[in-house]
TrEMBL record:
<feature type="transmembrane region" description="Helical">
    <location>
        <begin position="137"/>
        <end position="157"/>
    </location>
</feature>
<keyword id="KW-0812">Transmembrane</keyword>
<keyword id="KW-0472">Membrane</keyword>
<feature type="transmembrane region" description="Helical">
    <location>
        <begin position="354"/>
        <end position="372"/>
    </location>
</feature>
<feature type="transmembrane region" description="Helical">
    <location>
        <begin position="417"/>
        <end position="438"/>
    </location>
</feature>
<dbReference type="InterPro" id="IPR001046">
    <property type="entry name" value="NRAMP_fam"/>
</dbReference>
<feature type="transmembrane region" description="Helical">
    <location>
        <begin position="378"/>
        <end position="397"/>
    </location>
</feature>
<feature type="transmembrane region" description="Helical">
    <location>
        <begin position="309"/>
        <end position="342"/>
    </location>
</feature>
<feature type="transmembrane region" description="Helical">
    <location>
        <begin position="268"/>
        <end position="289"/>
    </location>
</feature>
<keyword id="KW-1133">Transmembrane helix</keyword>
<dbReference type="Pfam" id="PF01566">
    <property type="entry name" value="Nramp"/>
</dbReference>
<feature type="transmembrane region" description="Helical">
    <location>
        <begin position="105"/>
        <end position="125"/>
    </location>
</feature>
<feature type="transmembrane region" description="Helical">
    <location>
        <begin position="177"/>
        <end position="196"/>
    </location>
</feature>
<keyword id="KW-0813">Transport</keyword>
<feature type="transmembrane region" description="Helical">
    <location>
        <begin position="31"/>
        <end position="49"/>
    </location>
</feature>
<feature type="transmembrane region" description="Helical">
    <location>
        <begin position="78"/>
        <end position="99"/>
    </location>
</feature>
<protein>
    <submittedName>
        <fullName>Nramp family divalent metal transporter</fullName>
    </submittedName>
</protein>
Length: 441
């Protein structure tokens, strides 16, 4: 089965930050901004496919490509901003999980954050022990819980479907809706998901066909010396040793037919995964628009939970909180995984997963223990994520459009134009978001 990597990456699109933005949009402006989520989802499909394609065609992750092309000091500076983005992601996701445990069981936020960290560590141990398929299955299961948790309320909330369809027409109602749209779009395309997807696709598929390529004439090296290939893998490895990790993508050529098949499967994987994530996001907005509009206190997740309980009953509110908990647990695991991919690609350093999880959990626990408003911390984390988007998106588009690197799989001109238009729009909206947030406008 070739599906799975995109479902892991799609967790970034249904994290607690998205929950906060979507509920606020629906509660304050009804169905007005449905079109923003549809547009954001279409953009995300293009970007995530490009990231996966880079990993499949070249055998290297996006951080590895950037690291190989940068001077040492530039590489370290790039790593620092990427690591700060990953840390901001982790803070948002741990806070979301802690809020869910507080809503469900009344646990203190710090204790809830610690529990979220421990559970995410268990998931990362599964992944780090070379059981990627098992990790994917666990994350897909959590995605199903997230979908159930957020879609259930939509079916019982009495959505005004004609108004929802009318929300597909792009428009604004004043400056606040522009700010909110920028927040929704900026929080949807996550930098860590862009870095990670290239690794997810490469690690799932490239190892298998790279081993095949070493024993056939699919590599330039074997093509130059066909007699070197043998039926004995050990002897073949001695004659044609495995390429240095830094040279993967330049030494290794895979049969084009194999790459095309993987890219078709990846395209389907991305479409299905992000359609599900998009449906969850839209369901959150529809739920808020139909049941929470005009209700006081819905600008926070606990306030939205109380409003859902009052409007639709405690059962629906509990299911909502379970979805939020699954969102926090899954997204913090994926975020920590992305951080390890970033560090390995840019610094060429790999630290034990237990140590990394312990270090990255500390900032979230400090925020929770300091008594900072959790919803405000979520909003601030989205601003930090917005700053990191251009650093991931622009190199990705340049690399996938590079014919010397990608060969026949390089982006064609129409795709490059669309990709650059998407990048320009996302960057512009995030500049607006940052400016309005910092000025308090």
């Amino acid at each position: 089965m070739l599906l799975g990597p995109a479902f892991v990456a799609s967790i970034a699109y249904v994290d607690p930050g998205n929950v906060a933005a979507n509920l606020t949009a629906g509660a304050q402006y009804g169905y007005l901004l449905v079109w923003v989520l549809v547009l954001a989802n279409l953009m995300a499909m293009l970007i995530q496919y490009q990231s996966a394609k880079l990993g499949l065609v070249t055998g290297r992750t996006l951080p590895e490509h950037v690291g190989a092309r940068a001077r040492p000091w530039t590489r370290r500076a790039y790593w620092l901003q990427a690591e700060l983005v990953a840390a901001a992601t982790d803070i948002a996701e741990v806070i979301g999980g802690a809020l869910a445990l507080n809503l469900l069981f009344g646990l203190p936020l710090v204790l809830g954050g610690l529990i979220v960290g421990v559970v995410s560590l268990v998931l990362l141990i599964v992944q780090s022990s070379r059981r990627q398929r098992s990790f994917e299955f666990v994350i897909i299961g959590m995605l199903a819980v997230i979908a159930f948790g957020f879609l259930t309320g939509t079916f019982v909330s009495g959505v005004d479907w004609p108004e929802a369809v009318d929300g597909l027409v792009p428009r604004f109602e004043g400056t606040p809706t522009v700010l909110l749209a920028a927040s929704m779009l900026g929080a949807t395309v996550m930098p860590h998901a862009i870095y990670l997807h290239s690794a997810l696709a490469r690690d799932r598929h490239h190892a298998a066909f790279a081993a095949t390529a070493e024993k056939t004439d699919f590599t330039r090296r074997a093509a130059a010396n066909p007699a070197a290939a043998t039926a004995n893998p050990a002897a073949d490895a001695a004659v044609n040793p495995a390429p240095d990790p830094a040279s993967i993508g330049t030494e290794l050529d895979v049969a084009p037919s194999r790459v095309r098949r993987l890219l078709r499967a990846t395209r389907f994987d991305v479409i299905v995964a992000l359609l599900l994530a998009g449906a969850v996001n839209i369901a959150m907005l529809l739920l808020a628009a139909s049941s929470l509009r005009g209700v006081e206190g819905t600008d926070t997740i606990p306030g939205a939970y109380d409003a859902i309980a009052a409007a639709l009953g405690p059962a629906v509110a509990t299911i909502f909180a379970i979805g939020l908990l699954a969102s926090g647990l899954a997204s913090t695991s994926v975020g920590a995984y992305a951080g390890s991919v970033i560090m390995k690609g840019l610094l060429r350093v790999r630290i034990p997963v237990v140590a990394r999880r312990a270090v990255t959990l500390i900032p979230a626990l400090v925020v929770l223990g300091a008594g900072i408003d959790p919803t405000w911390a979520l909003v601030l984390s989205q601003v930090l994520l917005s700053i990191g988007i251009p650093f991931a998106l622009i190199p990705l588009i340049r690399l996938t459009g590079n014919r010397m690197l990608m060969g026949e799989f390089a982006d064609r001109l129409p795709v490059r134009l669309v990709a650059w238009a998407v990048a320009a729009l996302i960057v512009a909206l995030n500049v607006v978001l940052i400016a309005l947030t910092l000025t308090g406008s």
